[in-house]
């Protein structure tokens, strides 16, 4: 058996209820390793013979829960799972295909990934569509598709409670909330109530298959090349993490530490990206959370950083609400972005997104968008079902998210995300839609830290804050999604120790170049996939709003000019070895990466 | 070793007080026991502010009946203890099926490490047929040990006896014998305690006055949830369930 792999993937056809084990992925693992890389390759192999613009909500779109060689190994942070499919959410500016969209990859932490790996699988692929709501139970080799009528319609917290009662603490679960069931385009897949594979609409694809939840228990040992080597790598990695200068800070505050810091630096998305410093950041920031809200830290599998914080709202209208966060992203998108000053209201808003199963980033952006529409008269109180959606209306934000998840009233429109909703609203609403390729921009501003123009613009799954501002960092971070390991471990110790652990597990002895080339291959394959759908250079630009200067804070006046944007993209494509005009990978680059089969695809596009 | 019989008259509610130690009772408990081991184990050597958890100085030995106490407020559910335990007792192979500490998650979110508490009345030991000679209590550490060679397959007597206690005893998937009893690493400094990055595990002398015994993880979770999420209706409902 290959080290780091069970050489077995579970494929479940929900239409027929049949399932079987395959090992077809093993022919790709040397090139694509796992997680996001394997996801891109498997998606390409399944959809390359279909015409471009294949509908992501077609039952044949494979929903893949993919693992990497690190999952289940005793090294820090092997807790992530990458969910891949064709995205139902992204959309190019101009494409001959109506249902054109990008690849989708979305990662979540928690305990689910190692459990699934220990059940003996390198991943699970769902195809087809069940004729009624079902959930799938995987207990090692025993697989069962069960009726989910008692779970359907329940929010994520209720679903979690029911599954925990039914199966006990040894089983781990991932599920969708009402948003996924109703095919809200930016629905997430959740685990442990608050952890999400949030971005790029994976919950929507899961809902379209009538799949409510996946429940798993695994009791096997992940095979590795040499347990002594892995133990040494483990000791080295844990040691390095503990010696990381940011270790105590991340442990104490999690990403919330950035809330005030980012605001003071002029990089916090505020008021639907009008501004980048929030004057009330102290009222909803990490210090308030620490003194009034947090009661405990929470960790993913084998992670000493335990960045997650739970708490209970101590006072006010939402007293008694148990919630998680604020994290930097959720606290910004549901806080400053909506101009919310009420801490309890903000936490309830974050918790509502989690319970409804909405991507918290997109949900916060959509609420901010709707608030701006309301303030400027593009949406009225009647449109919004009686909600006076002024800036800072936390109650309104909470109600609106529930309407979105259930597609009630205005929710049906906003469930399509800002790009599509703005087109329908018209009257210049397009300028309020803070999105790239159809997916909403996250909580980091662009004007002061222009690297984010590349981060958001070039991400292969639509605006995403995680991919990195230059080619090297993009490759290193991509390796995290491939292995599949948490980025915070990589932030703490860099990619070299991860490479050592990878080699100890697999025994492949990849050099640093070979290792990073896996990521480059993945990026290029994803790029070609997107290009075939009609995405090109014009889809890599930031929204116009970022060309107007911010007016407030220590960096008032900062902006990114169209010329600067052009230059950043030119530099980036040059570094990538991509064509400047179209942004497509060059033939030499594809040949260098062993992706010769993609050359005709690019030739045809030219 | 004290052989006091459990007082049959102690009410259910009173029992709960001893099921797990709060921070306060932990401090009182260790002070009353006056154990140098427990105090040095958690106070001086374990925490030095930088998060390192290696005990310094001579390796500590457990020299009196002890168990591993958990500060449930601090556990974050990383399961590092679980993996370290599994690797230590299985030649470096992280077979979690063999781990003697299990961390269970409950909703509202709390993480409860379940570990043998060396109950004074030891229902597992009582249940194990004498003629098998498969279980005994270590005279020095007070830990209950399984003799794997003598343990018979498909016998669940000890497992059933532990069901309403720590509930960590279970059948191994390998050969259906009983696994899960903490042997306190044979009196060496326990691996889980050493590895815990949160300092939430302590070696504490055991109350062998019959007043302390292990509780079911879920019962502990109810208590922890109630104090962790004070003022929450959801937490209240869970703790009453």
Word description of this protein:
The complex is a heterodimer of chains A (606) and B (241). Chain A has 606 residues and is α+β, with helices and mostly antiparallel strands. Chain A contains 25 helices and 17 strands. In chain A, the strands form five sheets. A six-stranded mixed sheet of chain A has the order 2-1-6-3-4-5. In chain A, strands 8-7-12-9 form a four-stranded mixed sheet, with helices on both faces. A three-stranded antiparallel sheet of chain A has the order 13-14-15. In chain A, a hairpin with a 3-residue loop joins strand 10 and strand 11. In chain A, helix 2 runs parallel beside helix 22. The longest helix of chain A has 22 residues. The mean pLDDT of chain A is 96. By secondary structure, chain B is α+β, with helices and mostly antiparallel strands. Chain B is 30% helix and 13% strand. Chain B has nine helices and eight strands. In chain B, the strands form four sheets. In chain B, strands 1-8 form a two-stranded antiparallel ribbon. Chain B starts with 11 loop residues before the first helix and ends with a helix. The relative contact order of chain B is 0.22. The N terminus of chain B is likely disordered. The chains are: A alpha+beta (606), B alpha+beta (241). Chains A and B meet through helix 4, helix 7, helix 8 and strand 13 of A and helix 4, strand 2 and helix 9 of B.
